[in-house]
Design goal:
By secondary structure, the chain is α+β, with helices and mostly antiparallel strands. It folds into three domains: 8-106, no CATH class; 124-203, Arc Repressor Mutant, subunit A (Orthogonal Bundle), CATH 1.10.10.10; 208-264, Arc Repressor Mutant, subunit A, CATH 1.10.10. The protein has 14 helices and nine strands. It has helices spanning 8-17, 29-39, 55-60, 75-90, 111-118, 125-128, 131-143, 148-155, 160-172, 194-197, 199-203, 208-223, 230-235, 239-251; strands at residues 41-43, 94-97, 103-106, 145-147, 176-182, 188-193, 225-226, 255-259, 262-265. The strands form three sheets. Strands 1-3-2 form a three-stranded antiparallel sheet. Strands 4-6-5 form a three-stranded antiparallel sheet. A three-stranded antiparallel sheet has the order 7-9-8, with helices on one face. Helix 5 (111-118) packs across helix 12 (208-223), helix 7 crosses helix 8 (148-155) and helix 7 (131-143) crosses helix 9.
């Protein structure tokens, strides 16, 4: 059996969970956080061209949402940006550029799983992190919070590109996250240590195989069915890791395998 398109009943299933219906669209920060808690993790500004739950699509309240070219003048993309900043500053949901540099929101319950898969243990930082990332991390552990420009100066990294790469690396490793967006007198992020915002979650140990299963569970719960390669594209997992997560759900009876790479919830309503 070769399944390449999603049956309509699962599109409808996703419509409900991913807020792709006008009557259930996200309209304020409380809606946004409830949506993120329900899906477990989601992208920030992706549209119909990329699979998975997205804050922008939930704000639009429709399946076929496309990001406009001029986002500043578009009310839906502008609201998404405002909600992103509000969720970030409230600190109840983890936000940052995670796997493959994608801007992602993660509910607290899934932070231990993301930490297990993508986090870098303190004991391995010098082996895994680049010298620039280590320089930024050293400053952050001394200061705890710092604006972008001040952080670059304090870390001694010359060149914006090298500094941005270091910050992206630390976000992927769940070491540093943006804590607040400041627009006056000019735009900047206030960066903070992830362990300062989510100490319990990042200290919780989870076996990698359990983490893969829980990430797969979070996606399948709200997707209803996943096509070949879809979990990997949505999460940034490798194809083998995505397969391990899905197979673990089959083993426990939570999902069933329909074809290579195609899994479905045992029960959908």
């Amino acid at each position: 059996m070769r399944i390449v398109t999603l049956p309509e009943k699962f599109e409808v299933f996703r419509d409900r969970w991913w807020r792709r219906e006008p009557e259930h669209r996200v309209e304020d920060v409380n809606d946004a956080e409830q949506f993120m808690e329900s899906v477990g993790f989601c992208s920030a500004m992706t549209d119909v061209r990329r699979p998975g739950p997205s804050l922008f699509i939930a704000v639009c309240g429709r399946r076929d949402a496309h990001m406009p070219r001029n986002v500043q003048k578009d009310p839906e993309s502008s609201l998404t940006w405002v909600l992103k900043d509000q969720v970030m500053s409230r600190g109840r949901i983890l936000y940052g550029k995670l796997a493959r540099g994608r801007s992602t929101f993660v509910a607290r319950r899934l932070i231990p799983a993301f930490q297990s898969i993508w986090g870098v243990p303190t004991s391995k930082e010098r082996q895994i992190l680049s010298p620039n990332a280590l320089a930024v991390l050293k400053v952050m552990r001394r200061e705890w919070e710092m604006g972008t420009r001040d952080l670059q100066l304090a870390s001694g990294i010359k060149g914006k590109v090298h500094f941005v790469h270091a910050l992206d690396e630390l976000q992927r490793a769940l070491k540093v996250v943006p804590g607040e967006a400041v627009y006056q007198p000019k735009f900047t992020y206030i960066w903070t240590l992830a362990e300062g915002r989510f100490p319990e979650e990042l200290a919780t140990k989870m076996a990698r195989e359990d983490a893969l299963r829980e990430v797969a569970r979070a996606f399948l719960t709200t997707a209803g069915m996943t096509l070949r390669g879809e979990l990997a594209r949505v999460t940034g997992l490798s194809a083998p890791d995505a397969g391990l997560g899905n197979w673990a759900l089959v083993d426990e009876g939570f999902a069933e395998r329909l074809a290579p790479g195609v899994y479905r919830l045992k029960k959908t309503d």
